[in-house]
Amino acid sequence: MSLRAQVAGCGGYLPERVMTNDELARRLDTSDAWIRQRTGIGERRIAAAGELTSDLALAAAKRALRHAGISGSDLDLIVLATATPDHTFPATATKVQAQLGMKRGAAFDIQAVCSGFIFALAVADNAIRVGQARTALVIGAETFSRILDWQDRGTCVLFGDGAGALVLRAAPDAGPGGRGMLSTHLHSDGSLYDILYVDGGPSSTGTAGHLRMEGREVFRQAVHHLSEAVEEALAAHGLSGADVDWLVPHQANLRIIDAIGKRLSLRPGQTVVTIERHANTSAASIPLALDEAVGDGRIKPGHLVLMEALGGGLTWGASLVRW
Ligand code: ACO
Asked: Quick one: 3-172 is in which CATH superfamily?
């Protein structure tokens, strides 16, 4: 019997502290109007001093487990996507594993920056398909506020902190109409390493460093590659934009999100948009958006959900799931 990963639950967590555009405009040469018009961002959450990526991840994970009606001891795999781990090693996922009381299986981090959640989903989906895991927790968790250059208005206004998580469970594969992950499509192009990177790290400077980005070029690459990725995901199943119930994109820029929605001929209300309140939470943005749209009843069992993301590397990908 062939197996497939079905979504069993989701959860999200945002730190309490809200930082508005106006607050940023009081200490930088920027404005609420500029940030909203160019990006769609109105505010972002910032982790408290001492609140780590693992704390955000754990809070989101507990909510996802509760939603799925299971406990940490039921899990046999945790894949945590982050570019802002608590420490250089061990993996932040292992800390979450211990805090959830999971004593078997495996827990590890993966690093694909803003595409991290799609990459983590692919790893967990594949592990379930081959029978290596039966119940997996996929987490995207970030504290980008710790790697921003708060003097650089071109980047620091764009990001926020947060975490989201999804529980996947093995189930018999009931074909394209049945519930579960249909496929995940991953890409990277290391020749574009330098257009979005952090200027530090254990092997280079020995410091954590700060995020650096050629915004206009990343924007151009994002529209191009994400358009290709969503079409690749749909074509793999003989589907088109007309079959999609919800687009849940990585939340980097409202203009990028709108461009992909138009490319698929979706109605504006079919795209889940959180960027106004969350900003770009990197690997956490898709599971946070999923959690919001499931929580308010937009995404329902049986709906076809298309996810896409692009991040540093460059990395990009798309995934289709029948919720
Ligand atoms: N406030 C006011 N002015 C600003 C600000 C700001 N916060 N930031 C930049 N500007 C200025 C620039 O200095 C420039 O001024 P100049 O014309 O006098 O030189 C002008 O605004 C235009 O700057 P651009 O960078 O060309 O502005 P653009 O319209 O491209 O918007 C932005 C910049 C928002 C960064 C956009 O390029 C973008 O969203 N890029 C994609 C980011 C992205 O998708 N990242 C995804 C992955 S993130 C990850 O993986 C970690």
From this structure: Thiolase/Chalcone synthase (3.40.47.10)
